Amino acid sequence: MSTDLKIDYIELPASDFDAVQAFYETVFDWRFEDYGEEYRAFSDGKLDGGFYRSDKVSSTDNGASLVIFLAEDLEAVQQAVISAGGRIIKPIFEFPGGRRFHFADPHGNELAVWSKTGV
User: Over the stretch 53-80, which tens digit does the pLDDT of each residue have?
Assistant: First the structure.
């Protein structure tokens, strides 16, 4: 399968790089590289991205795209998000084909985690 035209990189706003780094390292095992006061990059081993310095927040209420993680154990990930300082925006709910929840990271960016039904 070609890698041409696949999503390759994602960027999110953050005002406290240390707080978002600690959160994503704890919950999702991301690795980070600092590029000065205005940018901090991350990698999850499959997708790369970064946080740029901003007070703005990525939220579906503001029309932002929603980044959604796939998880085998949805309840365990939801608890890890809470334990690491994230806030649950939408608790676990069902939809055709799966279940998911939405959360805000320490900066307030909205993301989601889903799990397939019957897996």
Answer: 999 999 999 999 999 999 999 999 999 9
- Its pTM stands at 0.93
Amino acid letter, residue 41: A
Rounded mean pLDDT, 6-13: 94
The Cα 66–Cα 102 span in angstroms is 9
Cβ proximity of 27 and 86 under 8 Å:
yes
What one-character-per-residue DSSP string does 40-98 give?
EEEE-SS-EEEEEE-S----GGGT---EEEE-S-HHHHHHHHHHTT-EEEEEEEEETTE
Which element (helix H / strand E) includes 20? Answer: helix 17-28
102 to each of 15, 43, 45, how far by Cα in Å? 21, 21, 23
